[in-house]
Automatic annotation (TrEMBL):
Protein's job: Catalyzes the 2'-O-methylation of the ribose of cytidine 1402 (C1402) in 16S rRNA.
Entry's family note: Belongs to the methyltransferase superfamily. RsmI family.
Broadest EC class assigned to this enzyme: transferase
Main location as per UniProt: cytoplasm
Designated name of the protein: Ribosomal RNA small subunit methyltransferase I
Domain Tetrapyrrole methylase: 4-207
Signal peptide start-end: none
Source species of the chain: Streptomyces thermospinosisporus
Length: 286
């Protein structure tokens, strides 16, 4: 018989949030794969439990190499417990490769539900939570970050992002540029920890606040795009939006497609407006 892969949620701040079953699984697992073995040691000490099984590291740097080894353990009948530094494994943390490989070998995969920064931030944000999408971390390079944000400029669901404190001001400024400075958002810092803070406001306001410097682990929740299905967007405005995107480095074809989604109109309508504006400009210059 094959073994079982257990994905275990760990506290995102307050260790007392750990589910009782986490201690049971830590004590019973044949192998405990941890993103950081030192943090695991602090967690087990806080929970008063000693793992009986072998403890190995499993982080971004060795994930590819260690996955086959753990899959063989699972295939041989072992119970492997995967824990990351905080929250659920595989959600912007190591784990996806191991889950996919285990599923490929018909190994049972289960989970110990636990705290989640995504759901916690959503719940306290004050923004709509009936529909949302998790976007993880944005690219570090400014151009790539803007391009990723433009992809979801028309997304009506609430958006959730993770971000590092030293990039937060740039990210919020980019969001204000792409989504509009008046779009509502919430910056959730150090959730469930001693210095927890939830800063709510418009993106432009939050970007100015973050420019002063922010510390801690950050989750950003952004209001979805307004419903513009009943609004008429004129040709002049469509052309203006395309030009803004082109000036920011986007190719015309991509800019037209993005504006079409944003305005809720067929791409052909935007294309025709751009072509007509170009012809008028050329005619006016003669």
């Amino acid at each position: 018989m094959t073994g079982t892969l257990v994905l275990a949620g760990t506290p995102i701040g307050d260790v007392s949030d750990a589910p009782p079953r986490l201690a049971e699984e830590l004590a019973a697992a044949d192998v405990v794969a941890a993103e950081d073995t030192r943090r695991l040691r602090r967690l087990t000490q806080a929970l008063g439990v000693t793992p009986k099984g072998r403890v190995v590291s499993y982080f971004e740097g060795n994930e590819s190499a260690r996955t086959p080894e753990l899959v063989e353990e699972l295939a041989g009948g072992a119970r492997v417990l995967l824990v990351t530094d905080a929250g659920m494994p595989s959600v912007s943390d190591p784990g996806y490769r191991l889950v996919a490989a285990a599923v490929e070998r018909d190994v049972r995969v289960t989970a110990v539900p636990g705290p989640s920064a995504v759901l916690t931030a959503l719940a306290v944000s004050g923004l709509p939570v009936d529909r949302f999408c998790f976007e993880g971390f944005l690219p570090r390079k400014a151009g790539e970050r803007l391009a990723r944000l433009r992809e979801v400029a028309g997304e009506r669901r609430t958006l959730v992002y993770f971000e590092s404190p030293h990039r937060l001001d740039d990210t919020l400024a980019a969001m204000a540029e792409v989504f509009g400075g008046t779009r509502r958002a919430a910056v959730c810092r150090e959730l469930t920890k001693t210095y927890e803070e939830v800063r709510r406001g418009e993106l432009a306001e939050l970007a100015a606040w973050a420019a002063e410097g922010v510390r801690g682990e950050i989750t950003v929740v952004v209001e979805g795009a307004p419903d513009k299905s009943g609004e008429e967007v004129g040709a002049e405005e469509l052309v203006r939006r395309v030009r803004v995107r082109e000036e920011a480095g986007e190719r015309r074809k991509e800019a037209i497609a993005a504006v079409a989604v944003e305005a809720g109109v067929p791409k052909r309508v935007v294309f025709d407006a751009v072509v007509a504006a170009k012809r008028e400009g050329e005619g006016g210059g003669r």
